């Protein structure tokens, strides 16, 4: 293939998913703009937003990429009923990593923000929000990633072109929406 | 696949990278935090934040996923005359030129319909396009370097390239967006 062939093919293959992802990102942005009250009620929350969103993208983007490469190599089958313990193992590891890293982000933010002169909410508030958001969005993203990669592969799409943008979009939209839910639950229970 | 498929070994392969990236992302969060007042003044800019850094990260992660799979299949060389490499980089820049003007219009329109916008549509489009093209170029360079380094250190690019590229784009995205905003808004 010439450079032109590779470029045209790569451009056409990824444009629809990139566009869908941009639409998702815009909606995440509008929801973020509407979270003013929560952002004010929990000082330090805005600082956590990129880390929490990125963790969703990282953990579940890697899950998707791993599944895609394994499908290409014939290591796993696109079956929703596990044929062996490979797919369940990688899912469990992703969920556990997502929760651990979110708790780590909340703790570090709590420790460094006062040093830099920022206001910060109590540790229990930040950690509870990070934990709840990680559990909710982790479960939702696991279902979405496995479904998109397996169904896409079965229908003859290259899962590599689906994984990156779809996961980061779903990661942003679910990430912001479940963060909002987590904040509201914690505030309703008396945190903040 | 260079990593074993067991819960503990997958967690161990990913955790150090995730922890390091989280620290980087907290840096990006601090940049956001220091501009919180300005972001709340111009909600259009706040709406641009996730879509700009997300799209830039996506461009990088598509490129990284393609290079990783080409690497696993043995069809990638890291030479400048490699058609697979150059063709994919050209596609990445073309994607940025197509998408970012539309992202600018979309952010302006959606903010106008919800919380209201005080910025002119051409300003928002110019901010989105300038930031987007700069980020696409950064994303391409970072992806190639990271995939190459992973390959040299015998790491699985699936574990390393996508997270590193996406997170660097997040931080660069916040920084680039605000540098551009300083000049254009």
Strand and helix layout:
The complex is a heterodimer of chains A (192) and B (185).
Chain A: H1 3-33, H2 36-41, H3 45-72, H4 86-115, H5 123-154, H6 159-188
Chain B: H1 7-34, H2 36-41, H3 43-73, H4 83-113, H5 121-152, H6 157-184
Helix pairs in contact in B: 1-6, 3-4, 3-5, 3-6, 4-5, 5-6
The largest pleated sheet of chain A is described as:
none
| Most strands sheet of chain B | none
Number of DSSP strand runs of chain B: 0
Name of the CATH first level of chain B: Mainly Alpha
For this entry, what is the oligomeric state of its chains? heterodimer
The rounded distance between the terminal residues' Cα atoms of chain A is: 58 Å
Polypeptide structure, described:
- The complex is a heterodimer of chains A (192) and B (185).
- Chain A contains 6 helices and no strands.
- Chain A has 192 residues and is mainly α.
- The mean pLDDT of chain A is 89.
- In chain A, 52% of the residues are buried.
- Chain A starts with a helix and ends with a helix.
- Chain B is mainly α.
- Chain B has one domain (2-184): SLC41 divalent cation transporters, integral membrane domain (Tetracycline Repressor, domain 2, Orthogonal Bundle), CATH 1.10.357.20.
- Helices cover 84% and strands 0% of the residues of chain B.
- Chain B is globular and about 50 Å long.
- The model of chain B has no long low-confidence stretch (mean pLDDT 84).
- At the A-B interface, helix 1, helix 3, helix 4 and helix 6 of A face helix 1, helix 3, helix 4 and helix 6 of B.
């Amino acid at each position: 293939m010439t450079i032109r062939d590779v470029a045209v093919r790569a451009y056409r293959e990824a444009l629809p998913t990139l566009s869908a992802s941009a639409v998702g990102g815009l909606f995440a942005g509008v929801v973020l703009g509407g979270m003013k009250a929560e952002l004010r009620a929990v000082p330090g929350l805005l600082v956590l937003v990129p880390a929490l969103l990125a963790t969703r993208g990282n953990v579940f983007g890697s899950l998707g990429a791993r599944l895609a490469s394994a499908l290409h190599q014939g290591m796993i089958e696109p079956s929703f009923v596990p044929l062996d313990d490979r797919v369940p193992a990688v899912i469990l590891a992703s969920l556990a990593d997502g929760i651990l890293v979110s708790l780590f982000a909340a703790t570090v933010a709590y420790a460094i923000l006062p040093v830099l002169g920022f206001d910060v909410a109590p540790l229990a508030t930040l950690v509870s929000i990070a934990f709840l958001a990680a559990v909710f969005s982790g479960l939702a993203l696991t279902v979405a990633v496995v479904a998109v990669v397996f169904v896409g592969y079965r229908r003859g799409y290259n899962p590599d072109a689906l994984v990156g943008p779809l996961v980061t979009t779903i990661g942003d939209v679910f990430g912001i929406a479940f963060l909002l839910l987590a904040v509201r639950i914690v505030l309703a229970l008396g945190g903040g | 696949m260079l990593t074993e498929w067991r819960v503990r070994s997958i967690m161990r392969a990913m955790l150090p990278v995730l922890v390091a990236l989280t620290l980087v992302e907290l840096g990006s969060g601090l940049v956001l935090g220091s501009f919180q007042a300005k972001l709340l003044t111009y909600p259009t800019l706040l709406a641009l934040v996730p879509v700009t850094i997300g799209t830039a990260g996506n461009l990088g992660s598509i490129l990284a996923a393609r290079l990783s799979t080409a690497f696993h299949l043995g069809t990638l060389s890291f030479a400048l005359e490699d058609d697979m490499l150059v063709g994919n980089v050209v596609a990445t820049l073309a994607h940025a030129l197509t998408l970012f003007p539309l992202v600018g219009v979309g952010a302006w329109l959606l903010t106008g319909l919800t919380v209201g916008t005080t910025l002119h549509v051409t300003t928002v489009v110019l901010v989105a396009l300038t930031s987007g093209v700069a980020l696409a170029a950064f994303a391409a360079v970072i992806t190639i370097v990271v995939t190459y380094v992973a390959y040299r250190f015998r790491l699985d690019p699936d574990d390393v390239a996508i997270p590193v590229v996406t997170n660097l784009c997040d931080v660069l995205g916040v920084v680039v967006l605000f540098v551009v905003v300083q000049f254009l808004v």
